[in-house]
Structures
1.
Amino acid sequence: GAVVSQHPSRVICKSGTSVKIECRSLDFQATTMFWYRQFPKQSLMLMATSNEGSKATYEQGVEKDKFLINHASLTLSTLTVTSAHPEDSSFYICSAQRTRDFYYNEQFFGPGTRLTVL
Amino acid sequence: GENVEQHPSTLSVQEGDSAVIKCTYSDSASNYFPWYKQELGKRPQLIIDIRSNVGEKKDQRIAVTLNKTAKHFSLHITETQPEDSAVYFCAASPSGGSNYKLTFGKGTLLTVNP
């Protein structure tokens, strides 16, 4: 159990275009999902918390108008990178939170999306 | 907010030796401490976690210890194998409620030499 998928795995786009990344929890419901960004040889940097049925919560310094998040159902969250530029090139990873009880939540990660903006 | 420090940044051991990675955290409200293993280009995989109501947890060759008073926790891998080579991340968060955030350490690149 606890499988999270992410699509696409790789995407190459031209500067100025928008890219949508999907994150799905396949065998559990996730009211909360998270979006991270990871640069080579660095740790995971939380970008935003995605809550089903409500607006996402963005971390300080992350532009909410550039990184649009939609959590349309209990198994799907999407991240859209709008007007992408080369500096947006990175590895984007989502995670889905599985709740065992009020005090015990686990995060399971998707396989990541490698975005390259030309 | 929470701050997690992780040491060492790189660790090289011989096959069969033990490896220890240490993390400290700053927020006394944190009470959930997972460890993730990430191979190059792959997703982080949860390998073990510990909650603050226990001091130690073991799963085969992997163990985690927690000292809440000192605000530090450690990952212990015994009888290391080449396939243990990866980047390991510790994390901390408060648990409870509808959602929580993980704060990650900067990672430890573990290399197990055959």
2.
Amino acid sequence: EVQLVESGGGLVQPGGSLRLSCAASGFTFSSYGMNWVRQAPGKGLEWVSYVSSESSTIYYVDSVKGRFTISRDNAKNSLYLQMNSLRAEDTAVYYCARESLDYYDSSGYYSRFDYWGQGTLVTVSS
Amino acid sequence: DIQMTQSPSSLSTSVGDRVTITCRASQSISTYLNWYQQKPGKAPKLLIYAASSLQSGVPSRFSGSGSGTEFTLTISSLQSEDFATYYCQQSYSTLWTFGQGTKVEIK
């Protein structure tokens, strides 16, 4: 059974730092790209960051560039999000999500987030 | 960035009703469109990918259609467990974006 379990959330002051972790099990972690998606209280979903299976490709949403760093350790089946210079608007539940690909030709594929963790709450407040 | 706009933002309906939710993209995204269901306090769940492919384990009352800029999610006969918020997501760009959500409520 595929499982993703986030941890590391909590209350932090503006300007502070936090490191989120996502422990993966039930699948070959090193074969999948992984994402962080967040949801502010009462709001919709916002994709935050992506890392490819071997960490060769990384993307961020503009609002976190230069402040957040995504990483992974395939030996430990773990995904991380280092969050620095936190702002009130970063307050949200943070989910890790696995990306699955469906190839329709040699280079074209469809991407989907097929498994999600239960989320960890990050609150940025003084 | 590709903007995704869902309509309606919310709807009140009854068990057994047919429900249709629309998602529009700010540019053509072919069929690079996914649909998710989210219940309060829970993680999102993938329903439909590639605009019309049903994710394994998802009931067949859910279906998706569309291409280009306009897409629909249809629930053929709403069940009590389907009251939730639904999100579309484009996967055409690797800067994935979601619609704002459609909340399906009990009338």
